[in-house]
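[User] Could I get a sequence and structure tokens?

[Assistant]
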Amino acid sequence: MTRLHGKVAIVIGAGRGIGRATAKLFAAEGAKVAVLSLTQANIDAVVADIEAAGGVAIGVRCDVGDADQIKAAVAEVATTWGGIDILVNNAFDSSAVFSPVLDLSAAQLQRNFDIGPVAYLRTMQACHPYLKASGQGRVINLGSAGGLLGMVGYAPYGMAKEAVRALTRVAAREWGADKITVNNVMPIADTFGSDRPPLPNVFDRNGSPEEDIAPVILFLATKDAQFITGYSLTPDGGMIIDAAR
């Protein structure tokens, strides 16, 4: 399992859920993985798991709502390993994603944008020189079907995630000349708690971060996906089969 042998990957929001599953899978496939998260205990646990399995990882605590911390974290990774080949943007604040439109405050919406598309923009900008130097840079942003479907109660989250999709599409056009692919993954995953009922889809279950979502992110990070950019892959169990009209 060496599909990412010799690659350096940054996984933002790698302390839990999809980010954790992605970081561990990347390491198993031979990448050197920088585990970025806000919670030090989660960082330490993921790095320990990767090293116990024979992989290579470093942990970097980073509040992606802080532009200076983003710059410092990216610089630390690049200095440690001499470059960056892959960036996975997966951070979000799970405490602030729910609100009906009528009750949505500007502050809650701003929180979703600060941790979502604004943070993604900053990490992409900070990583761009290294991704360009790689000659086969990869950016994978985590979006959501929440915005595409207009899911009830998800107004701040859905608005921010649709902005992520727009950022992805524009960057894909602009960065193609730099041989950087920029793609979006819009999963339906069991990340809000296993006690929640599954969202309606063909398989009547929410996706597993380890078995259903991380492998899709891995594919976009590999050479196999070198001719795919600006695209939104939807590992959602067929939830939005009819939504792309």
Notes: Residues 8-233 form a domain with the Rossmann fold fold (CATH 3.40.50.720). The two ends are 38 Å apart (CA to CA). The chain has a mean pLDDT of 94.
